[in-house]
Amino acid sequence: MFIKDLKVGEEVTAFYLVKSKNVKTSSANKPYIDFTLQDITGEVNAKLWDAKGDLEALYNPGEIVKVQASVTQWQQSVQLKIIKIRQSEDSDQVDYDNFIPTAPIDAETMYNEILYYINKMDSADMKKLVLAVLESYKTELLYYPAAKSNHHAIKSGLLYHIIRMLRSAEALSGIYKNINPDLLYAGVILHDMEKINEMDATEAGVVETYTKEGQLLGHIIMGIKRIDRIAEQLNVDSELSLLIQHMILSHHYEPEFGSPKKPLIPEGELLHYIDMIDARMYDMNKALKDMDDEQFTDPVFVLDRRRLYKSKYSKSE
Amino acid sequence: MFIKDLKVGEEVTAFYLVKSKNVKTSSANKPYIDFTLQDITGEVNAKLWDAKGDLEALYNPGEIVKVQASVTQWQQSVQLKIIKIRQSEDSDQVDYDNFIPTAPIDAETMYNEILYYINKMDSADMKKLVLAVLESYKTELLYYPAAKSNHHAIKSGLLYHIIRMLRSAEALSGIYKNINPDLLYAGVILHDMEKINEMDATEAGVVETYTKEGQLLGHIIMGIKRIDRIAEQLNVDSELSLLIQHMILSHHYEPEFGSPKKPLIPEGELLHYIDMIDARMYDMNKALKDMDDEQFTDPVFVLDRRRLYKSKYSKSE
Amino acid sequence: MFIKDLKVGEEVTAFYLVKSKNVKTSSANKPYIDFTLQDITGEVNAKLWDAKGDLEALYNPGEIVKVQASVTQWQQSVQLKIIKIRQSEDSDQVDYDNFIPTAPIDAETMYNEILYYINKMDSADMKKLVLAVLESYKTELLYYPAAKSNHHAIKSGLLYHIIRMLRSAEALSGIYKNINPDLLYAGVILHDMEKINEMDATEAGVVETYTKEGQLLGHIIMGIKRIDRIAEQLNVDSELSLLIQHMILSHHYEPEFGSPKKPLIPEGELLHYIDMIDARMYDMNKALKDMDDEQFTDPVFVLDRRRLYKSKYSKSE
Amino acid sequence: MFIKDLKVGEEVTAFYLVKSKNVKTSSANKPYIDFTLQDITGEVNAKLWDAKGDLEALYNPGEIVKVQASVTQWQQSVQLKIIKIRQSEDSDQVDYDNFIPTAPIDAETMYNEILYYINKMDSADMKKLVLAVLESYKTELLYYPAAKSNHHAIKSGLLYHIIRMLRSAEALSGIYKNINPDLLYAGVILHDMEKINEMDATEAGVVETYTKEGQLLGHIIMGIKRIDRIAEQLNVDSELSLLIQHMILSHHYEPEFGSPKKPLIPEGELLHYIDMIDARMYDMNKALKDMDDEQFTDPVFVLDRRRLYKSKYSKSE
Amino acid sequence: MFIKDLKVGEEVTAFYLVKSKNVKTSSANKPYIDFTLQDITGEVNAKLWDAKGDLEALYNPGEIVKVQASVTQWQQSVQLKIIKIRQSEDSDQVDYDNFIPTAPIDAETMYNEILYYINKMDSADMKKLVLAVLESYKTELLYYPAAKSNHHAIKSGLLYHIIRMLRSAEALSGIYKNINPDLLYAGVILHDMEKINEMDATEAGVVETYTKEGQLLGHIIMGIKRIDRIAEQLNVDSELSLLIQHMILSHHYEPEFGSPKKPLIPEGELLHYIDMIDARMYDMNKALKDMDDEQFTDPVFVLDRRRLYKSKYSKSE
Amino acid sequence: MFIKDLKVGEEVTAFYLVKSKNVKTSSANKPYIDFTLQDITGEVNAKLWDAKGDLEALYNPGEIVKVQASVTQWQQSVQLKIIKIRQSEDSDQVDYDNFIPTAPIDAETMYNEILYYINKMDSADMKKLVLAVLESYKTELLYYPAAKSNHHAIKSGLLYHIIRMLRSAEALSGIYKNINPDLLYAGVILHDMEKINEMDATEAGVVETYTKEGQLLGHIIMGIKRIDRIAEQLNVDSELSLLIQHMILSHHYEPEFGSPKKPLIPEGELLHYIDMIDARMYDMNKALKDMDDEQFTDPVFVLDRRRLYKSKYSKSE
């Protein structure tokens, strides 16, 4: 049974992926385990009150477990009270991918779509620079999410974010002729790339922590340093390198969101809006897709606590 | 000679359109006329010091005059000191259109492109409503600007704004499948329509003043009232009318820019960003198009006083 | 025993009104009911741990129940642990009004006081318009609160809010002769009227939810549309209708509180301040009235978390 | 001829009061005098180009002069070019009061109205304290304005401000029974009293400068110190003194307007709103009273640059 | 065992100081005691479930108790479940000072260091004034903390804050010759002195509550009044008194932090920065001192929720 | 005669340095030159109305001219009307240094003082890194100002800013033992170094323009990139390089002033405050040093338009 279908008062037997695990002590002074379990449809808190054995060794994050549990309610949320638990075995033939929320397009396919856009560039220097950066990140890019908990916090989410932005960039630079598509594509591909070094993520696309450099400098500054060095090594035209650094610097647009400069070129301005559109469309679709028509959502934290409306004219992806 | 080509110290003889005219008194206590003259390339202040005749009757806004003048400098700006002036005559064969900055696409063509998008709508109610509103504004829409002094403050500027937004709307609703194109097109076509009643503009596309209702309520509120009444008259589904009203209400996004509600549906969110993109691309292109490469503009008021950069990779429309 | 007199450690037997009810599951995996009970002096949380029977059907909001309970403490608050519960019966002869906080003046009396002010108006158009709107809302107006949880969130609270503002309006327009009392009275009577359609309230004056149109447009926009239509139907002078719409639009004063325009006429300015005074006097009296002298209240959420002071010179209504 | 009736292009001979005078040097390197002249209807800039004699000694502020001048225009404003000027003489029989904007009620009458309100107080301590403070300021209070350039910047303007606030205080404490009128009257009478020591004003009610203590501490802090000392000398109940100090401290309400604490008692809250109402009604009446109907004013600086509307339903004081 | 060394799952027997105590009722409807216990290394929550005897009389704040308890975990924090508890006895020979976080320098020594700085002043009036104020506060100053929960919330914390600021003042006025050290020392010594009357603290340096005057006026206003009176009594030069009052008024710098005026003299400007430096160095040292290298702290509330970094180059006091 | 001693109405003959020069056209349509002239005491506007010869070639910025001029007044300012002008000749024996505001300490001396602080560092890596950066900038550092128009906008102003900050850093790290002086010194020396590449300045210490990279990235980002590369080349410990980059990134403290991260280490926090103190002491001393006692300055733009007070207790550098 999928997590989103759990009903209070019933009992469930199912496989779930352990997302996090904490050994705690109950008010009766006994150890218990506090889990976050997940499948492709969501997450649920679960308690194993009667925990025995080597609690540190068992049921660790990244493992799949089979649980029998009663579905209870705590405050506004569903919670599992685990009756039985064991680790999954080969004979269970569980498919790991069924437990990890993942972008709807295959990672290699998306990677190749980026290559297609690089190929369309007129400037040889631009091609050379973007390709070199891209290839140096390929391994991680195939599974990295775009964020810890906001938009595109899924496996291959960063790739998916880039791809949809590239498509928008192509469409809009067809309408606005004052845009140099080479610059815009480069900005799209590189703007968030250093999130890979700002956050530590598992191959399941889950961010576990921010890195030391990520906290002290942030992905914007790290990205600028990276472009600066690689462009110099490849002997790329310095104006071109500077413009890309400026686009990375300014793409959050407002100082309080991390950009000390606003865009001074149209490609930087458009990059910002394309980025916003992709994030907002993702978050709104996620909030609305499982709702009934003519209902309002609960306040959505990442959208300024707005309560979105699902009308009878709504569509979902 | 075009206004943008005037050089301090030279003398010029040319036809210009009178944009504004004020009769004033000089420090020597004599009457003089203070003009703003324009042609398709810009505007210039001009003084007629030695003014004779019925000053109130002569050389009024909207008329084309022939002037002989010396080109002087006042503070940072070029100024004309008029030596001779007369009204244009039929025999001059001046073409009025050479003096009025106008959208680069023919107005009727743009109007028909709107009809094309209305035609693509699935919902009969939506078609009926949008068409009724559009047709009721047709006469003014063909020449109205989109603003008094900001983006698209040109003849047929409002139409041009709508057309480019519709094209973006079409492209982006092909990428973001959670968008109902009918709703988005309707929002684009109607979001600024009541600017026609908020501002009084001449047929040359120049806004002269804000109307009483424009100042006391503003085009957002006026637009909502208009949709509300027409939808009722046409018996349009009330949810549909309500959604369009909500999109109009929320399209400025922030309370301090006039929207008491933020968008609660994805189509409203996207409408806002498409609107921003079109305004910003217009303003940036205008600021950069006559610049040399590798130069910064003066601070651009409407872009938070940013000094934009024209790189060697820049393109202009 | 009144709720405000409950003491931790004692036992109580009393009648209370069910304000809300939720069926939940305990940590021991058994169903229980979580109530909010109220009487005229306040509200208290109550738990029925040993719940039997058809829990969905029993003890619903709006019903009066008789409970025997022990008074316990949870965190900083008093809580009831229910020992026995039953629904009230005719033979109990409970008076529903003893359980509902209500404005201190009779609703019909207040309604008539509004009519008295309408009668004093000089302008026949104004009279006609205000009277038509008022009468169309009469049924709901007699019991509607003015808010969900802030000032005047009591039965007939909206009427009480209007009445006290009318009295202030009369007094202040006697002092400030640049005020047209007709306009000010009309603004007072109509400024919040569409709260009746923005919020769904029970006849006990309790708001249960915001309506769809309330969330997508809000009572200010809804009020403007209503005035606009009715004034047109009644053939009211358009300037007069416009001024009232402007007063409704601007009465929250700041964009971030929902007014895209600030008042441009003195009557709108004064309306705002009269509205603020009535709300603040209500909230401050509520916070202070049961306090001892020379004490500070807990932080009052609706007053920016201020801790009010009850001095020995304080008075209560 | 009154200043407000001057017409560009005409010549005028009239008496005016010198408000300010500066001796300057012209571009032709000759001395001239730059005046601000005033009468009861307004102010006008005037130039005496051909200045002879002891320029420092002649035509100083506070003197009345007779001028013959031509009325010219400079930028948007009317300006006088003085042809002849002389000081007024006894034989001219000019009435000084015709040149000074003054509150519409006689100063002694207003002072007595304050005494009337003090007399109504129940608390002997309050009476004693307020009376002592009031009497110590009587001389200045009779002519002081309430501000340098904003509301009530007229002779006896501070008294007029107090009187209208007291009337509002009386009316509103009749409606809101949780208000102690003694406290509110005391707050009204004392809240701005130290403006007398914060600003240096002439007997014509014109503020010339801020004092040293005014700039380093401001009238709010100065007022608190004053009350603190006098209350101690008079042996007034300390709670009462503290409450008045708190009302003075909090009456500007927002930190950025000078109040480090918000009101914690209802009388302080109401004092703030009564103060706002009186200032705003004064400023709005001043901006609108000489306008034609159905016109908007120029942006009014002190009202957040709003352009007020004078409707056909407007009234003026 | 020190509180910072407690480990979940172990049992502890130790003496602790009772910081706060609340008698509550459990879900099983039995009374229990909820303690905050402290020693010199920190604080811990403790529950006495099986509480017997006169619960109001036993184990009150300020007493030292001996407890036997098991160390458990609740949410993210360590908690004690008390097995046995008794009050400390003379024979236990516990040293009260081991339980109270105290400034690292002896109070009398610090007091004498202030006298040393007063002695260095050139101005006799300044010496006289500062000394008089200092001596009038001596008793409380020896143990008062500088805050309820932020920086220097320890016994003698206010003295420690003053001392370190005086040392900075001395060093910086040696570098910046436009600073009058007399004024700066006076400002440092007096800026927070009225915190002693704003907050009620125990002799252990723990703030229990804010006073009435503290809440209605605050220590800045109270300090100004105090200086004003004492300076007058001692016949101190009025300019000097005014400057000190201005420094107290402006030392929080921003209106929203309580200063209605910004510093208008360099000594006031520098006082603000010295104050900030001392507070921030204290808070940062406290947050980092027990951390391992190359770790980030949890978000620190008083430092805008920053997560500080302890590098391998870090030093602790 | 020094510029600060010019008196309106007199005539002057003196040498001044041309700071800027613009050829303009008068209202009589004749060319004239608009100068800014300077000496060590200030700047003055000057007009050469009767300009003859090759105006583009003559009297350019950086040259010293001898002028005979009458001193006139324009608006609030003194202005020179040039009667005669010629370029200075060798025989005039003017000393260039008398015309350029310069830091009060010799540049080489200051440079050596920096070396002294580097020498005190414990960490060999830190020494190596800071020294390498410093030496690479030595030529420009000897004359660069610290800003275009704010604090330390004088010749060698950047050096002077660094030196005074180093002295404060030494003093305060003696008081606050949780500070690593090596890190703090490094931060002080390097925090603004890239201003040298952000702004183009003449050897007279006058900034003429911002560079392209300066406008697109800013000195903070440029400084981080520089440290990053040099540290890598020199094989400096990466944690140390990262900490210095973080200190540069965070030293403006607030996002709206250019720092996307706040300091996460105490040395960064202290660097910010030392930087503020030095800038503010400089600006305040500059504003007050030529004032009479017991006067207020005009509003000082760079100090939030505060009007500073010069008391009789003030000192100047």
UniProtKB/TrEMBL annotation, chains A, B, C, D, E, F:
Record flagged with keyword Hydrolase: yes
Enzyme type, top EC level: hydrolase
Recorded superkingdom: Bacteria
Enzyme Commission number(s) from the entry: 3.1.-.-
Family annotation (Gene3D superfamilies): Hypothetical protein af1432 (1.10.3210.10), Nucleic acid-binding proteins (2.40.50.140)
Domain HD: 159-279
Keywords, sorted A to Z: Hydrolase
Descriptive protein name: 3'-5' exoribonuclease
Protein's organism: Fusibacter tunisiensis
